[in-house]
Design a protein that fits this description.
This protein has a two-stranded antiparallel ribbon. The chain is elongated and about 70 Å long. Helix 2 packs across helix 4. It folds into 2 domains: about 80 residues, Orthogonal Bundle (Arc Repressor Mutant, subunit A); about 40 residues, no CATH class. Helix content is about 65%, strand content about 10%. The protein has 6 helices and 2 strands.
């Protein structure tokens, strides 16, 4: 039987819950919400865009409100590390996009054309006429 301060430490160890886990993958390690396939990146970027924890749960119904608050607490407690991790991910994505543009110029030209054709349809000034 554990007594005294050792008992308190043991109780805290048992009630401490991890909300974020670092998972090793072939392309490198990534942070994920524990027990889910949702990346910490997704939750943090939603939070930084101004989404509420409840709104984040609406966007990722596989998460609980507890998991979202836990993930946000992890982010706020480790902001310097997580911000660096996010910046590295953004730089990797930018480099990959540039390499793909050089490797597949025809594909990217087609995508640019499609974006120009779709842009007028997606603009806020475009009106949708519905039959009365």
């Amino acid at each position: 039987m554990v007594t005294g301060i050792a008992h308190i430490i043991e109780e805290r160890r048992q009630v401490t819950k991890e909300y974020v886990e670092l998972i090793e993958q072939p392309g490198g390690a990534g942070y994920y919400i524990a027990g889910s396939r949702v990346s910490l990146d997704s939750v943090v970027y939603a939070f930084l865009r101004g989404e509420s924890p409840e709104g984040i749960v609406d966007s990722w119904p596989s998460l609980t409100l507890e998991q979202v608050f836990g993930a946000l607490s992890f982010y706020l407690a480790n902001r310097d590390v997580v911000d660096q991790y996010l910046a590295e991910g953004t730089a990797e994505f930018r480099d990959l996009r540039e390499r793909l543009k050089k490797a597949q110029p025809a594909l990217y030209a087609s995508l640019a054309t499609a974006r120009r054709e779709i842009a007028p349809l997606a603009s806020p000034s475009a009106t949708i006429h519905t039959p009365a």
